[in-house]
Give the backbone structure.
Amino acid sequence: MKIVALAGGVGGAKMVFGLAKAHAALDLTVVVNTGDDFDHLGMRICPDIDTICYTLAGLANPDTGWGRFDESWNFITELKALGGDDWFRIGDKDLATHVERTNRLNNGQPLSKIVKDFCDRWNVKQHVLPMSDQKVATIVCTTNNGELPFQDYFVKKKCEPAIKSFRFDGINNADPAPGVIDSIEQADVIVICPSNPWVSIDPILNISKILPYLRQKTIIAISPIVDGKSIKGPAAKMYSELGIQPSALAVAKHYKKLIKAIVIDDQDISLADDITRLGIISFNTNIVMKTSEDKLNLGKDVLNFIDRIIR
Amino acid sequence: MKIVALAGGVGGAKMVFGLAKAHAALDLTVVVNTGDDFDHLGMRICPDIDTICYTLAGLANPDTGWGRFDESWNFITELKALGGDDWFRIGDKDLATHVERTNRLNNGQPLSKIVKDFCDRWNVKQHVLPMSDQKVATIVCTTNNGELPFQDYFVKKKCEPAIKSFRFDGINNADPAPGVIDSIEQADVIVICPSNPWVSIDPILNISKILPYLRQKTIIAISPIVDGKSIKGPAAKMYSELGIQPSALAVAKHYKKLIKAIVIDDQDISLADDITRLGIISFNTNIVMKTSEDKLNLGKDVLNFIDRIIR
């Protein structure tokens, strides 16, 4: 079976890890949000891509969900001693990724080619594709802090400012990266990972050349919201600030025109009827992935649900 | 007493460390070669300045002479795994210097200001000045390998190609960094450190606005050559390839128009008469600095020799 997963960072990484573990021979392509990418200390940093790649490579830090395991922090400590910007924590191993990627980008290599080569070197068996080789920048429009580049909002301001809308700078000039359209066309099913709908998945959906191909496919989403709260990150807070009650139902409505099914948590079983009324199939299981076993189990469950909707 | 030292990397660092230890209240300014500076992995790297600063700050690696002590190498290991250029060894702590410097340079700060701020943060009591804020690039012209940027010759090719001449790209547009001329004018004596005359000291002497001020001063050099061999690096090899017998006498001749005195090693006492015949005062002591005590002792000796020539 060929699956294309649309993913952001930590939630997406857990899901694709689970899918990969659940079925070793699975032909899995991950199309990753690059709206969070930014320039920092002269380097191009791609947080979601790195989290996905590190996770699939078995290099990720299981405690944080981002960065490398067995990491050292000598660079950032010394950078701070020199008065440098240390709000974005970069470990010594992680730094090599940013420096080498930036160097290659400056030499004219497209991001997708760099990601492919890094994945080959890290023995990642799945295909990881940035949504685009062109720069897209997610801008968070807040009620009291003006417009903030995503990492300023997310890391520097710890998601505290109330949001009112989002903008994806550069999205109109962003073409799908090589391989994105082909992999979608060849996919048996598209999985929308339990990533933030507003800032992780919407950038991908807003690339105008991608959406028509997705519309021809069977799509299943996994809710990033359980019992009205985000599993991680600001998704639920964003729904509230936008005047929408955060819930797996709100997520189903978010993707209503696109998805055939949604996977919600057992705790949200009471929402199943409302989801069904939207014309969306609702599956439920434990979708909170804390351990490797949780990820594997959800991977297996999602593959079973997929079997049920595409046969 | 006010001293201005002209210095390259390791030999210069040992000498200024010795001078600083020999006399805590010494007003010492180090004017450092920047001809070795280069762009690498998107970063501006200033090897001589860093070696001088790390040494004066007590942060240097005593085994290598360059880089930081108690260093980790996770960045470069991971960079290599990604197929990155690892021929120039950069430690994790050292990397913070390059990243922060590059970031500030890209934001328009002049190198001299950055070095000053780094030195303040590292509690360096001496004044460290790059010879110029403009880029100068030492080019090594070889007999069989064409023209090589200095670090390609020095690190990548391990000084193996035979040289025939040197060029200092950008030298005609290089102004002395702020403070260089003032410190020379106010100095009681100029010390030419036991650095490579061709590629560490000559770039400084070739900045046309510096030389006239040096000519008005009492200058003492310390030979980087002992018993016909370089203490470290390719100086002796360069003399040979240029058809000059490498010796402390050759160094004295190199600086003949500039220096009042030269400090040679006890092993080279037989050269003293020939040096005297050049009109240059010759002092001898142990100039091979292996231990901290060696550096301190040579520092004390040089201060004594200075006393004898400026009184």
Notes: The interface with chain B takes residues 41-43, 71-72, 74-79, 81-84, 91-93, 95-97, 99-100, 102-103, 106, 117-118, 121-122 of chain A (CB under 8 Å). The first strand of chain A starts at residue 2 and ends at 7.
